[in-house]
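Section 3.1: Structural characterization of target chains.
Under the original work plan, the team committed to producing a structural model for every single-chain target entering the pipeline before any wet-lab resources were allocated. The record below documents one such target. The sequence was received from the expression subgroup and is listed exactly as submitted; it comprises 189 residues.
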Amino acid sequence: MKLLLYTGGRSLVEKSGIGRAIAHQEQAFAAGGLDYTENAKDAYTEIHLNTVFPDSLWMARKARKQGKRVIYHGHSTREDFRNSFVGSNLLAPLFGKWLRLCYNSADQVVTPTPYAARLLGTYGLKSSVEVISNGVNVYKSSSLVQFRTMMARILQKEAPDLTEAGFRTAAGRDIHVIGQCYRQLAACL
């Protein structure tokens, strides 16, 4: 099995939470020993999409036609879109319809929290929604036990969508929450 981590439109989301999630997925795939590519021209059996841009929907539909498994990472919700800029509340219903179109192009939607899964559950999706909680990159520091415990408590309380967090240790090293835990990384949490 070879995965395609589709990164179309990456330059538009590079500095956002979605951009960070893509970078964390790259780290998780590599650390988990998964065979993956970011080149859509390479052969692959499964595609992972993070953005809801038109090119992502096109890639999802193309992959489905070719019989490939499509995984959409559900970072965006209509509710999060609301109140994000002047006029966003007027556009939110239209954005919700677009999200439903994108997410329904997938075999499965993966979202980081039960909260986000409940929101997506109200969209009338045909695709299944699975919660894969965020994971802490334990390879960056050996002093993460307290942070992991705190994050586990936050996620168990089903707090509003927590897709990334960070802090500095006394040594000044950055600690980041990873977008998804895959295979071997899940055992570290």
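The first strand starts at residue 3 and ends at 5.
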